[in-house]
Amino acid sequence: MAPTPNEPVDKSETDRILELEEEVGQLKEAVVSHAVVDQAIGMVVALGRVAPDQGWAVLKDVSQHTNIKLRHVAELILIWGRDGRMPPEIRVELEEALERYGPTQIPGSPHD
Q1: How far is Cα 70 from Cα 54, in angstroms, rounded to an integer?
Q2: What is the C-alpha separation between 55 and 80, in angstroms, rounded?
Q3: Proportion of the chain above pLDDT 90, given as a percent
Q4: Percent of the chain as helix, strand, coil, to the nearest 5
Q5: What is the rounded CA–CA span in Å between residue 26 and residue 39?
Q6: Residue 96: pLDDT above 70?
Q7: CA atoms of 81 and 39, how far apart (whole Å)
Q8: pTM
């Protein structure tokens, strides 16, 4: 039977509740992080004319070459999309990565 609000909770139950609350917090953060990275990949795909897997590779390369966490690189790319500002070191690495991976030819374009 579940304890009433005024009834003391067993320490092991308290520990388990704290563990579950921490896990829920981590899962919420992971969902947000995943959404940010997916949006940044979408921007790289659209603006760099690369395939989605190449967009992922571009983000990974920029992250590795700048020693900045991938999620933070993704956030910076989204900020750039909103207001045009991007740290110079990210811009240089992004341009170099896009040169390595793209652009992909668009079917039906005059360059086919």
Answers
A1: 15
A2: 16
A3: 54
A4: 70, 0, 30
A5: 20
A6: yes
A7: 10
A8: 0.69
